[in-house]
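Progress narrative, work stream C.
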Amino acid sequence: MRVPIAVPFALATLALGLLTGCQPSSTPPPNTPGKPRIALVMKSLANEFFLTMENGARAHQQQHATEYDLLANGIKDELDVSKQIDLVEQMMAQKVEALVIAPADSKALVAVCRKAQMAGIIVINIDNKFDDAVLAQAQARFPFVGPDNRKGARQVGEHLARQLKAGDKVALIEGAPNAFNGLQRKLGFEDAMKAAGLVIISSQSGYWETDKANQVAAALLTEHPEVRAILCANDSMALGAVAALRAAGKLDQVKVVGYDNIAAVQQLLKEGRVLATADQHADRLAVFGIEYALETLRKKTTPADRETPVDLVTAK
């Protein structure tokens, strides 16, 4: 077992966001001459993964306070694309030097990011890759700094497959259909299932959310009582699947895997309720993008894509 990286979970920040209905944000730092301001725009800060990402970015900035200032923002609802577009517009108005973005939608955020780029802002794409066809249509190119989601999901699926036998029936709970990383994780799961001779009897979106995945899993267990495993495209949805299994009295009959290695799933790994997940190092993912943005500003170059680590995490 690879020992997961311990990351503090900002419960107070989450509580504030949930109570106010707003994303946590800081007062914009002053524009110090010669000191660039980096904007980090994330998806839902109600998702532990992105809170961990924000915490990692803020810790990095504190360690490099003389090198750059950080403006970190995120949306409340992971599917609130218009709000994330608004955040990018706000960062443009504040004349940041670089934008590091985990887009909520692989297509819809291209136009506003291209607008930022045309205004002279360095744009670095992290976590969820922009759609290649839409980028080409917009004549835009943003370097992607992030993991190979298909490879990570395939590793998780292969670990699960070793606990099953050919012909067993499994189901997928996908991420949002407009997200490139969700599609890649689905493909990775499918790669592993087909190679092992397992039968995918259902594949539905849980839209990254625990409650929606819980509903999908509950209906699945009723419609397909023979299912042996549920593969979830993130850990938040794996939590929903586990809750559905508990309610149905099938915790020991159906295996669950996830993706992200959030703190909330680590105890379930120890208990065997979740068999495996993938760690793409949320605490470092934004940092990789920030460091790349700083490098680009220093060297005045157009960077290429940069793949970051993703590791299989199991209970043993």
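Work stream C, second folded protein:
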Amino acid sequence: MVFHISARFLILLVMMFAMGCDSRHSLQKHLKEYQERMANVLDVESQDRLTISLPPYPSLRDLKQNIPVTTIKLFEFYNLKHCELYSLVAERNTSLGNLQLPSTRYIYERHLIDALKQCLIDTTDSKVQERLENWQRTKNQQLPMVWADLIQLSSEMKQGFSSNFGLIEGNKQDGLSQSKETLTYLLNINQKKPINSAELEQHLQNLLNNPLPAKLWLSQLTLAQHLNRSTKWLWQHTEGLQCPGVGTEKKIEYLINVFQQFFIEKIQPIASQINHYQYQLNPIFEKMAAHPKLSPSFKEYINNFNQQGFGNYQVAMQQHIHFWQGLFKRCNIKPGKR
């Protein structure tokens, strides 16, 4: 168990180091160059660097489900020797579910429910059958809460939804298909029979290795904050500029070249992929945000990005494009013509 946790921690450290040294963060680089080139053209100071990060993940204490411990008396335990249930209960020190990693706990509970069902078939003692039926009913009622803990408390899910390790690149390395498959699997895992521990752990590992939801939300936040500030800055510094062809003023012509080279050719293609990912993952996020067993703070966290965050990003893009459309119209310039 110690090795398992340490390995996950090591992966996180490697990811943080790799992201810190990686020059492939194209979006951040393009936004920075876009702003610096515009400042050079206008001969003004470039804006200070923005520090952007996702809000903290909700407190695990608030997210944890209140699941009563189901206990079994010693004499009841010995009455189960003819069933596989006996060895499962023995693993948990005669308690039907103790503290475990969320994924381990979920797998254990699924196996326990299956074993209870089989033990009922193999048992002839009516009193034992009655106790088994009570346990089975309790465990079936608790399974959605155990699933909620799997979704909300797993370290892989926390990293997948709140890490600040990377941005969308706009290519296959973003891993949309794999991330969509993983999130769909986790959302619908209660319907999967039989349950496979290795498959579950692999999906969680995929989310840890490539936290696409967090990268998507951080990219939207990054674009929104950069573009909101740049749009306001452009209005301030271009108001008195003359259009090309009037006297010797060339700054607007140079600005449009920068807009074409960096925003249209580099930033907008990544934004287009961000929109695509959002529309592909939105149904999954909406199902999570509406699930009755997930905690309000977790659902609010998702909604803040999936609805409000995406909306803010869209408005920032629209307002920035609106500025340039107004400039093109004022100077009677056709978009794409430099």
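Residues 65-155 form one domain. No further action is required on this item.
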